[in-house]
Amino acid sequence: MAAPSSWYGNYYRARRVPSLPRRCVVPDGIELSVDYARVDDQSTCRAFIRDSAEQGRGNVGEDEYEGTFASRRLEFVLGAGQIFAARDVRSQQVKAFVVVSPSLYARAVDCCLTSLYVFLERQFQADAVVYQHLMRLAVEFSQALCLGYTNALIQVSSSEPELLRLLRQDGFLRVGTIERCVKVAGMGLRDSVLLARCLTTASRPRRSATEINELLDKIFPENESLELYRTSVLPTADFLPTEYTFSCGVKVVCRNMRRDNNEDSVVYEIWKAAAEKGQGYGVDEAPTLTFFRMAVLLDHYCVVFEEVGTGKIVGLTLIAASHYTRTSETRSGDSNLFVVDEFRDRKIGSEGSVIELALMKQLGFTRSVNDALASNLQMAAIYQQPLDDSGERSWRPVGVVPHGCFVKGYGWDDQLIMMYNLDNCLEFTQLAERSLKRESGHEPGVLSKL
Description:
Strand 13 (332-339), helix 10 and strand 14 (367-373) form a beta-alpha-beta unit. The chain is built from 12 helices and 16 strands. By secondary structure, it is α+β, with helices and mostly antiparallel strands. An 8-stranded mixed β-sheet has the order 1-2-3-4-5-6-8-7, sandwiched between helices. The chain has an 8-stranded mixed β-sheet with strand order 9-10-11-12-13-14-16-15, sandwiched between helices.
């Protein structure tokens, strides 16, 4: 297949499954030989994916891998993954591909979570039993690779009930359901069911920071990456800057991050400080500034909260399309909120989460599909609080990603997936206007007016 375009590069390519090729017999008596894919199989694999999307079968969404953001997902899967081709023993024609990849959902470069994929030729796209047989091989391969994978995670469309039944029969457990998050050709929006399977109960050792950084340097060479970053257009909100006054009295200007004066380095240090203290972020979500620029800032709106008068950064948020959804049609977003130490313990975090939702609404998102680490008690409290006048909790839990992130002082942590519909949410400029009126004594608190 194509040269790795991911963070993992040669390290993940160097581990190979022994005792290949493997033989398996699928329905109708067809015998398949499964071995590593050849370089010239790449176009065939992509053709299977496109055809599955168009046919609405084979567990591939209609626009799951279309568009800039979604196509990067596919490049990650094929670039980082170990790819196997299943050939008809008689005709030698490729009938399917099996992919074992570091999970897109893991918040760690050095992850212990794998995502497994099966891409089928049209003859087999509607056959859940063939998918089941090949997924069994994917599980075996992920265990044989010795890459430290402890859990496997897959998403299956609710339009594939027989496939869901068979996979659960094989030991996959449902760990979540994200509503209307995959668009199936001829059927429209369907739910996506998250299935997880434990691969081993053995402890997972951490790789050293030196080894991780060496890997990243090979994939993101500093000079080339810096040139690409400097010549790329970063996402920005055209309705900013706007002033906002927090309930505690801190007045800020909410603005787009400035790339001049190395403000991206300042933003990265805020992220890094939170990770080093175990405050809601993993130790290797963004191990280097180069990685942060390429993997985070190129895809995210970065909104900085700058204190009026002092110019100090109070906090910031990073907003992007949610990687938990498999279609752009629902316009689902996610976010990362940071408050610097000097301004903590003033309830700026809880109010900042409201600002994030209002920013998302004005940026065109219709809902937030976000996650929080199970160890992050402050974020858990925010998710529990009501955000409207009903007094009911507005965030809904929809799933969990097992062992997706490594947190300092805690260890491997689960990611709790939460959803919030933005239908009744104010846009940010409206929210900001109300905060300024509140400052003058003419409006009640922002939280009660969301």
